[in-house]
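Input record, target 12 of the design panel.
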């Protein structure tokens, strides 16, 4: 099932998570920065059609941890890109923990 851009020019979208959490799904607010169909962060604004649930990154985050292949499918990017981003984030977190708490068990905790 694909969804088209809604005609919501006269309506204002939700401003907080509390206002949108019970809203319609898939989410009709493509202009929201959390909408998975909004690729504005990739350069010129373009909208991907949402063909599956969920349509909101906040909904995904509230579900807890996901496998990297599921994240790449949701974002529409290569699996290797997600793996690289994950590895860089873990390394930054490891360095931050080591600088704040010394050389403790940060390596064991983060993998």
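The sequence produced for target 12 reads:
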């Amino acid at each position: 099932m694909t969804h088209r851009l809604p005609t919501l020019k006269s309506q204002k979208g939700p401003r907080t998570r509390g206002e949108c959490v019970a809203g319609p799904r898939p989410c009709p607010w493509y202009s929201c920065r959390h909408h998975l169909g909004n690729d504005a962060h990739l350069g010129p604004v373009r909208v991907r059609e949402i063909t599956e649930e969920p349509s909101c990154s906040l909904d995904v985050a509230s579900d807890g941890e996901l496998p990297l292949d599921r994240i790449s499918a949701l974002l529409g990017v290569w699996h290797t890109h997600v793996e690289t981003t994950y590895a860089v984030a873990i390394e930054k977190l490891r360095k931050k923990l080591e600088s704040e708490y010394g050389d403790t068990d940060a390596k064991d905790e983060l993998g």
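The chain is about 40% helix and 0% strand.
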